[in-house]
Amino acid sequence: MTPTRRLVLAASDPRLAQTVQAHLGRTLALAVPVVRFVDVPHLLAPDTDGDLLLVASDPADAGPIETVVREAKVQQSPAGLGILESEAVAGRRAFDHLAPYLAGRWGWPHHVREVTTWARQAQAPGGVPFADPATETTAEAIRRKLVNHTPSLTALVDQLCIAAEHDVTVLIEGETGTGKTFLARLIHDGSPRRGSRFLVVACGTLSGHLIASEFFGHARGSFTGADGAKVGKFAAAGDGSLLLDEIDTLGLDHQANLLRVIETGEFEPVGSNETQISRARVIAATNWNLSDAVERGSFRRDLYYRLQVLSFHLPPLRHRPEDVGPLVRGMVARYGTKFGKRLFGVCPEAMRALESYPWPGNIRQLENVLQQAVLTSSGNELKLHHLSPLVHTRSDVTTPPPGATANYGGTLKQSRESTERVNILRALEKAGQSRTRAAQLLGVSRVTLYKKMKKYGLFTRPEPVPGFEPFLPRVVG
């Protein structure tokens, strides 16, 4: 028998699953893996067209199986789905409402030949099988998670693999809500430290006198209210990873203590003379450009160099619209399960509205809007009217005329001019509104850039405030 990931059994009853396994092994010489229903979402990917056989051994399996089918359809997974019913389930019509969403439907053990035929068809050559977590490489695991979450970041796979495999400090920059914690977790999960803890310290929420205690812990009686000893995050993380979020909010004295523990691993709990050693790996995140803070003198230059051994910049969501669709489908699936909604899809008009909105709060704002929309939704599809008026009443969200395709974007000239305008705005933002630097980034002369800006009416944008240095995104790689 040869192991296969083209066909996977999902079951809650190991005995029935083993019976199906044995049958397929005996008739087709297949070693088909078995997973739990809760493991199925981790197998689904936009390019996986393997087949899932959901084994219903008891009426109680109806809920988990419906969740699997619904989440697969919301996320537009190309995987084939089938339900294999035991005698205890057959005749209860538990899955009739799922029939439109399934690739097949059988009873067990009365239709063994149909199961055998379907399993044989599932092994047809070609296509992408389900990933095997036991054998996939770090790069494959990272790429799969990015494709499911933020496909625009797949270009960073090689750099993320380097960050995961080497024990160095990492700096992640980006606006609030862009997914910095997700990226840090991805690095941790791909590293040799994946079996240890991943802890987050929200530096911006801590007052000055509590930061040292949160980092390094404290001894009993070290200050008013310290009724007992406390273990800090550097010790609690053990051999794991520690994400220091909003690290730009640390004062210079705390920066000095942090520099010491990064360089030597040594620290003392507050009120204690006992030196301890940290084994945690440090990942830092910031909403601001730390190099600007260094120039202003609010952030230590030596600490900055220690932190950015490897660095990543996450663009805002408005600059990566291709990520909105996967994020929306993943969130609708998750919140549909949480709130017990039977949502099997997102209507095109709602998706267009979500993709066209600029999302100043980035992924965090998108998540809040979708949580509210799913909670108040009814029916099998998330509609435009379920969304917040902030999103669906925008003037640039229109319903295409009958016969128009969803991807229609105007004439070639209009598409070219729209793309040109967006690229100029991005270059100006990156160059801090300096036309000379923006022209250099775009590969055109300053005169050409001036004419283009005049053509597209970009001189109405406000000039930078004197003395204020804007956030300059940094291209990595």
From TrEMBL:
<feature type="domain" description="Sigma-54 factor interaction">
    <location>
        <begin position="146"/>
        <end position="375"/>
    </location>
</feature>
<dbReference type="InterPro" id="IPR002078">
    <property type="entry name" value="Sigma_54_int"/>
</dbReference>
<dbReference type="InterPro" id="IPR027417">
    <property type="entry name" value="P-loop_NTPase"/>
</dbReference>
<dbReference type="GO" id="GO:0016829">
    <property type="term" value="F:lyase activity"/>
</dbReference>
<dbReference type="InterPro" id="IPR025662">
    <property type="entry name" value="Sigma_54_int_dom_ATP-bd_1"/>
</dbReference>
<keyword id="KW-0805">Transcription regulation</keyword>
<keyword id="KW-0067">ATP-binding</keyword>
<keyword id="KW-0547">Nucleotide-binding</keyword>
<dbReference type="Pfam" id="PF25601">
    <property type="entry name" value="AAA_lid_14"/>
</dbReference>
<dbReference type="GO" id="GO:0043565">
    <property type="term" value="F:sequence-specific DNA binding"/>
</dbReference>
<dbReference type="InterPro" id="IPR058031">
    <property type="entry name" value="AAA_lid_NorR"/>
</dbReference>
<dbReference type="InterPro" id="IPR025944">
    <property type="entry name" value="Sigma_54_int_dom_CS"/>
</dbReference>
<keyword id="KW-0804">Transcription</keyword>
<dbReference type="GO" id="GO:0006355">
    <property type="term" value="P:regulation of DNA-templated transcription"/>
</dbReference>
<protein>
    <submittedName>
        <fullName>Formate hydrogenlyase transcriptional activator</fullName>
    </submittedName>
</protein>
<dbReference type="Pfam" id="PF00158">
    <property type="entry name" value="Sigma54_activat"/>
</dbReference>
<dbReference type="Pfam" id="PF02954">
    <property type="entry name" value="HTH_8"/>
</dbReference>
<dbReference type="InterPro" id="IPR003593">
    <property type="entry name" value="AAA+_ATPase"/>
</dbReference>
<dbReference type="GO" id="GO:0005524">
    <property type="term" value="F:ATP binding"/>
</dbReference>
<dbReference type="InterPro" id="IPR009057">
    <property type="entry name" value="Homeodomain-like_sf"/>
</dbReference>
<dbReference type="InterPro" id="IPR002197">
    <property type="entry name" value="HTH_Fis"/>
</dbReference>
<keyword id="KW-0456">Lyase</keyword>
